[in-house]
Automatic annotation (TrEMBL):
The gene is rplD. GO terms for biological process: translation. Keywords: Ribonucleoprotein, Ribosomal protein, RNA-binding, rRNA-binding. Belongs to the universal ribosomal protein uL4 family. GO terms for cellular component: ribonucleoprotein complex; ribosome. Residues 64-94 are annotated as: Disordered. InterPro entries: Ribosomal_uL4 (IPR002136), Ribosomal_uL4-like (IPR013005), Ribosomal_uL4_dom_sf (IPR023574). This is Large ribosomal subunit protein uL4. It holds the Pfam family Ribosomal_L4. It comes from Parvularcula dongshanensis. HAMAP family: Ribosomal_uL4_B. Part of the 50S ribosomal subunit. Forms part of the polypeptide exit tunnel. One of the primary rRNA binding proteins, this protein initially binds near the 5'-end of the 23S rRNA. It is important during the early stages of 50S assembly. It makes multiple contacts with different domains of the 23S rRNA in the assembled 50S subunit and ribosome.
Length: 206
């Protein structure tokens, strides 16, 4: 697959040949869904917790006699049916992570890249060198490229570009080692540098 290489100033800088084994697959929604589910489940903290009746501070004295009250039989007020009592079957700290084989994760990343390429939402840029770290200046360049919602991936992220982009809404910047299915799919456009495309091919083509 051949694609044009652009510059940050929206000019042309030649073409690049992309490996069809990484960028030319027919996207499978089931594999992408499995990987996104795995990612979102893994990043849940799982620290939610409620107190059960054994953890509530209070007396265990029987507060009403067993018979003759005309009401139900009760022990202490830490039971779940009373206000201030424990929660029955409440959440406990746990891991929400699920297992996903490494080969499936790599396959999902290839399908995510292919999905962007097939939808004409993939842009290859020569490099992200940007001096000054001024958000306004970068916003003007992105407007010239027609980008409002995008993920930039570079082999080694330029510090000036990253600083200028961090205040832009719906614009993310990642190193190639951090490229993942969820972040690729959640943005409208995927912008790879030539070095990032080569690194992804080396990582995923084998």
């Amino acid at each position: 697959m051949q694609i044009d290489v652009l510059t940050l100033d929206a000019g042309k800088a030649g073409t690049v040949e992309l490996n069809d084994a990484v960028f030319g697959l027919e996207p499978r929604r089931d594999i992408l869904h499995r990987c996104v589910t795995w990612q979102l489940a893994k990043r849940q903290q799982g620290t939610h917790k409620t107190k059960e009746r054994g953890e509530i501070a209070g007396t265990t004295k029987k507060f009403v006699r067993q018979k003759g009250s005309g009401g139900a039989r009760h022990g202490n007020k830490k039971a779940p049916q009373f206000r201030g009592g424990g929660v029955a079957h409440g959440p406990r700290p746990r891991s929400h992570a699920i297992a996903l084989p490494k080969k499936v994760r790599a396959l999902a990343l290839r399908h995510a890249l292919s999905a962007k390429a097939n939808a004409a939402e993939l842009i290859v840029i020569d490099d992200l060198s940007f001096d000054g770290a001024k958000t306004k200046a970068l916003a003007e360049k992105l407007t010239g490229l027609g980008l409002k919602n995008a993920l930039f991936v570079d082999a080694t992220v330029n510090e000036g570009f990253a600083r200028a982009a961090r205040n832009l809404k719906d614009v993310d910047v990642l190193p190639v080692v951090g490229a993942n299915v969820y972040d690729i799919l959640r943005r409208e456009k995927l912008i790879l540098t030539k070095s990032a495309a080569e690194a992804l091919e080396a990582r995923l083509a084998s």
